[in-house]
Amino acid sequence: MTEIASIHKVNRSTIMEWKYKLNSYGPEGLKES
C-alpha cells in the first residue's frame, strides 16, 4: 500500500510539473522533456 501511495505522490508532482511547463512554454516545452 505504501508503494502505491508513494507512486501516486510522484505521479501527482509530475502532472503538476507537466501543467506548469504547458502553461509556461506551451506544447513545445512538453516535447523537449
From TrEMBL:
InterPro entries: InsJ-like_HTH (IPR055247), Trp_repressor/repl_initiator (IPR010921). Pfam families: HTH_28. Residues 2-31 form the Insertion element IS150 protein InsJ-like helix-turn-helix domain. It comes from the Bacteria. GO terms for molecular function: sequence-specific DNA binding. It comes from Paenibacillus larvae subsp. pulvifaciens. This is Insertion element IS150 protein InsJ-like helix-turn-helix domain-containing protein.
